[in-house]
Amino acid sequence: MKNSSSRPLYLIPYYLWIALFVIAPIALIAYYSFFDLAGDFTLANYRNFFSSVYLQLTLSSFWYAFLITVFSLLVAYPAAYWLTKAKHKQLWLLLIIVPSWINLLLKAYAYIGIFGLYGPANKLLEVLGIGKQQILFTDFSFIFVSVYIFIPFMILPIFNSLDKLNPALIDASRDLGASSWMTFRRVIFPLAINGVKSGVQAVFIPALSLFVITRLIAGNKVITLGTAIEQQFLVTQNWGMGSTIAVFLILFMIIIMMLTGPRDKGGAAHGKIK
Fold it and tell me: Does position 274 have pLDDT exceeding 50, yes or no?
C-alpha cells in the first residue's frame, strides 16, 4: 500500500500554478481597483461602476453574450445529435475541432474579407439582385462571427453527453408509445443537460469579455465589458477603473459557473415519460 502522506507532494505544482496564475492576478486586480489615476486610495471606482453608463454597458454585454450562446446552442445541439448518428463521427468531430486551432485574429481578418464590400458575401447579394450591403461593423456580423468561433466549444460537451446515452432508454421510451418529440423532451434532453450546461459555460463566459472581435468585426459599435477593460487600461490609462470592471466581470463569471455547474443527483437522470 502506498503511503498516503506522500500524495500532497504531487499536488505542489498544481497549488503553485493556482497561486501564481489564478489567485495572484485576481488579488492584483482587486488591489488596483481601489486606486484612482493619481494613485490615491478611493472607492469612487466602485461607485462609478453603478452609474448608468456602466450598468448599461453590463446589460449590453449580457445581452450579446446571451444571443451568442442561444444561437450557438441552436446550431450545436442538432449538429452534435447528428454526429452521434454519423458513420464516421470521429472524422466529422475532428473537422469541427480543427478550425478552433486557427488563431482568432486570422479568422477575424478572414471574415473582414468575406463580409467586405467587395467580398464573397456581397458578390452573392449582387447575384441575388439585392445589391451591396454594409455587412461589416454591424450587430449581425459581430454575432455571426462570434457564433462561428464558439460553435466547437458548444458542440463538444453536448456531443460527449449525447454519445454516452444508453440507446436502450430511447428504445424503451418509444416502446412505451412516446413520440419522437416526447422522447427528446423527456429522455434525451434531461440526460444530456450537463453537456448543455458545460457548453453554455464555455460560450457565455468568454462572450462576456470579447474585445478583439468587437474591434475588427463590429468596428467598436458593439461595446462589451472586455472592450471597456481594454480601453481603461490601454487608452485612458485608468488602471483602477479597468480593474474594477474586471473584478465585477470575475464575479459575474463565478455566478454563471455556479448556476450552470453540473448537478448529478443519482436517480434524477432517469427521465419519466408522461
Answer: no
Q: What's the Cα-to-Cα distance from 19 to each of 15, 211, 250, 251, rounded to whole Å?
A: 6, 27, 16, 18
| Residue-level length of the chain | 274
Three cell numbers, residue 224: 462589451
Residue 237, domain extent: 52-269
The 10s digit of each residue's pLDDT in 179-194 is: 888 998 889 999 999 9
Task: Tell me which amino acid residue 213 is.
Answer: I
Q: Does the structure show a pLDDT above 80 at 31?
A: yes
- What are the Cα distances from residue 181, in Å, to 60, 71, 186? 34, 21, 8
Residue among 222, 240, 182 nearest 30 (CA) = 240
* 198 falls within a domain: yes
Q: Are 142 and 213 in contact (CB under 8 A)?
A: yes
**What's the pLDDT band for 46 if we cut at 50, 70, 90?**
very high
d(CA 274, CA 190): 14
**Does 1 map to a domain?**
no
Residue 4: predicted pLDDT: 54
The reply to whether 34 falls in a domain is: no
Helix ranges (DSSP H) in the chain: 7-18, 24-32, 44-49, 52-85, 89-97, 104-115, 120-127, 139-163, 167-175, 180-183, 189-191, 193-208, 212-216, 225-230, 239-260
